[in-house]
Amino acid sequence: MKIGETYDPRKEFGKAVTEIAMENDAVVLLSADSGKSSGFGTFMEACPQRYFECGIMEQYAIGMASGMATAGNIPVFCAIAPFVTCRPYEMFRNDLGYMRQNVKVVGRNSGITYSDLGATHQSLEDFAIIRMIPGVVVLAPQDPAEIRAAVKAMIDYEGPVYMRIGNPKIPVLFEEKPFTIGKGQQLNAGTDITLISTGSMTGPALEAVKQLEAQGISVDHLGMPTVCPLDTELVRASAAKTHKVYTVEEHYVDGGLGTLVTECLSDMADTTVHRMGIPKGYATSGEYQEILSYYGLDAEGITRRILEA
């Protein structure tokens, strides 16, 4: 992968899972009537005995995955993000979290990337509700290379994990390297403000950093591919320098990364946190980039909102 090239996040996820599953017989894949859309097509043909099509019954799929984990398997269940988080939340909480099962749940077409299908298919509360389940790791890799690395880290990790990926093609932002759960990274060193981004918002945030620095604002930009547990050490060290923190995420402004950062910094004097995301309400539908612009989550919008604040 070369910096700047664009890839379908679902296909890269599917390839990464398939490569690992081909070498590890413990890995089994589950779907809710969308295996090929999740990138599982090759695996379905090569290893049909380890692919389980559960139909549109996500609650059942979570329970089935929990049972399979008890038997020593490593289930990876992938489907549309709101349907693997909101719909089976009780099963996620009790069968996976409470039982601390070694199950990996992946929500694809996350955030507003299923933009044309409206609020029912948008996932803007997944960080908030899943991070409240004790012991569940929440991941939001930021580019195609990081998706591949995060898949390996997720499967190697012993315990329940939720990972979200988008739908439109996204650019390669970084060289591929090992993914460490719970760690963020400094993407740009600065002293005036701290900007913290996660998942699909890191690409526009990088462009916004360039625009802000062209106007004389020095930005300490942190990329946060693990939403929970938050890299509190990195966040606090940056906030101690700048005292002005901005978060940006393709999620409601309440409950997700911005709220976690606010909680992390609540005892630090003279430090403010400005959260950027989707206002709490049923988001509009339409073309993806237009919706990002409408909510001020493209590079220009992020720049404008920081300058205004």
TrEMBL record:
Tell me the domain of life: Bacteria
Q: Which keywords appear in this protein's UniProt record, sorted alphabetically?
A: Thiamine pyrophosphate
In Pfam terms, one family for this protein is Transketolase_C
Kindly give the InterPro entries that the UniProt entry links to this protein. Answer: PDH/Transketolase, THDP-binding, Transketo_C/PFOR_II, Transketolase-like_Pyr-bd, Transketolase_C
- Residues in domain Transketolase-like pyrimidine-binding? 7-172
SMART domains on file? Transket_pyr
Key word Methyltransferase present = no
- Name the coenzymes or cofactors required: thiamine diphosphate
PANTHER family, alphabetically? PYRUVATE DEHYDROGENASE E1 COMPONENT, TRANSKETOLASE-LIKE PYRIMIDINE-BINDING DOMAIN-CONTAINING PROTEIN
Similarity comment text for this entry = Belongs to the transketolase family.
Q: What is this protein called?
A: Transketolase subunit B
Q: From what organism does this protein derive?
A: Eubacterium aggregans
